[in-house]
């Protein structure tokens, strides 16, 4: 039997057919329609499932279920609150099930990505696994013996809102000094822009043609790799904050594996090597032979498709 996994995003939707080895054998992407009736989005997803079936030449009876990752909170088959796609209290699983004739389950998208990495990627074989996502925001999910640790509000693991600097930068959640306010991709770009304004002769200014607002993660990384001093200082400060956050997570949970996912994981080995070097001497159990293995998430956006089922 096959399963269908769908990652319903605010901008893009990716779906795939997953075989019994948790591998994607066929996939498809489409743009998520904006601000429309959830019934229309359910219809888009159902059509995608029919197209996927046709691509691998099977009937719908070859699928035993559909799993959908949702960018928001879900409860059973209901999307409680997903402001990126404008769903509030929408019985979305039923809408897709009615059109496909298949059982449909919903899962939060960060949890889906963590699950995908756990069963088929960087966390494969681990007993306990923490996925730290450094993207537009900072997200987290903790899996222990195969189960997502949900907490009493289904939001355990949201380490983006752990304070690493008391009275620090304002965060989108209303508090100050959160990890997200320092270590998201967005925060890194902000820090690079601020540094460019105070260091007018940096390569950041040259590459952005003296327009700091044009500095994004990509441009920053280019300047960093070229040896720009201002960028190196920004990266050093960023790594100090990220290290504080990662050490806090390790001291609290001591996962077998901690994987870094999201857009920032695209800088791969630079970030990983530096992080491992800084975290090791800081963790509480530094003299133990057993240490959390820090890795880069390996499945990219496929994790969300695999983890949705
Ligand atoms: Zn916060």
Overview of the structural elements:
The structure is a single chain. The protein has 309 residues and is α/β, with parallel strands linked by helices. The protein has two domains: 101 residues, Nucleotidyltransferase, domain 5 (2-Layer Sandwich), CATH 3.30.420; 173 residues, ATPase, nucleotide binding domain (Nucleotidyltransferase, domain 5), CATH 3.30.420. The radius of gyration is 21 Å and the shape is globular. The chain starts with a strand and ends with a helix. A five-stranded mixed beta sheet has the order 3-2-1-4-8. Strands 11-10-9-12-13 form a five-stranded mixed beta sheet, sandwiched between helices. A hairpin with a 2-residue loop joins strand 10 and strand 11. The chain binds zinc ion.
Summarize the structure.
By secondary structure, the protein is α/β, with parallel strands linked by helices. The chain is 37% helix and 23% strand. α1 (38-55) crosses α2 (92-100), α7 (217-225) packs across α8 (229-253) and α8 packs across α9.
Which features does this protein show?
5-stranded mixed beta sheet; Nucleotidyltransferase, domain 5; binds zinc ion; 309 residues; alpha/beta; 10 helices
């Amino acid at each position: 039997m096959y399963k269908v996994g769908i990652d319903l995003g605010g901008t893009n939707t990716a779906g795939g057919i997953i075989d019994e080895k948790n591998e994607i054998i066929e996939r498809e992407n489409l743009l998520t329609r904006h601000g429309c009736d959830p019934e229309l989005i359910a219809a888009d997803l159902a059509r995608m499932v029919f197209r996927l079936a046709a691509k691998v030449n099977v009937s719908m009876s070859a699928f035993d279920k559909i799993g959908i990752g949702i960018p928001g909170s879900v409860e059973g088959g209901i999307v409680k609150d997903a402001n990126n796609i404008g769903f509030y209290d929408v019985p979305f699983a039923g809408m897709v099930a009615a059109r496909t004739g298949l059982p449909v389950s919903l899962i939060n998208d960060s949890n889906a990505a963590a699950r995908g990495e756990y069963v088929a990627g960087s966390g494969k074989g681990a007993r306990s696994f923490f996925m730290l996502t450094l993207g537009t925001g900072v997200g987290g999910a903790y899996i222990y013996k195969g189960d997502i640790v949900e907490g009493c509000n289904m939001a355990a693991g949201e380490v983006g809102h752990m304070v690493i600097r008391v009275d620090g930068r304002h965060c989108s959640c209303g508090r100050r000094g959160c990890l997200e306010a320092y270590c998201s991709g967005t925060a890194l770009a902000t820090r690079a822009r601020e540094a460019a304004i105070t260091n007018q002769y940096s390569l950041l200014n040259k590459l952005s043609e003296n327009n700091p607002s044009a500095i994004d993660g990509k441009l920053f990384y280019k300047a960093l790799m070229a040896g720009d001093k201002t960028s190196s200082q920004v990266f050093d400060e960023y790594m100090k904050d990220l290290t504080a956050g990662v050490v806090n997570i390790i001291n609290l949970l001591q996962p077998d594996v901690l994987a870094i996912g999201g857009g920032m994981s695209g800088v791969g080995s630079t970030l990983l090597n530096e992080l491992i070097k800084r975290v090791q001497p800081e963790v509480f159990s530094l003299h133990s032979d057993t240490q959390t293995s820090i890795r880069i998430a390996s499945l990219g956006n496929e994790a969300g498709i695999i983890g949705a089922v």
